[in-house]
Description:
It is a single chain. It contains no helices and six strands. By secondary structure, it is mainly β. The chain has one domain. The strands form two sheets. Strands 1-2-3-4 form a four-stranded antiparallel sheet, with no helix packed on it. A hairpin with a 2-residue loop joins strand 5 (49-54) and strand 6. The two termini are 20 Å apart.
Amino acid sequence: MTVRRGALEQAVDVTVDSEGRPVQVTFMRWSNANPDKTYRLQPFGGLLSDFREVGGYLFPFRF
Length: 63
């Protein structure tokens, strides 16, 4: 999906499992968290798991 706000735009990749739960989220971010300590766009995200129901909503408890 792509989120837009004014002139800003951010693409986000969301992987869902066969139940429709989001299990992975990735996007590009501006960061120097790399061996060269150089600011650049690089992948960022993570895995989601341990889904539990809270107040009628399903949430991942592990990120």
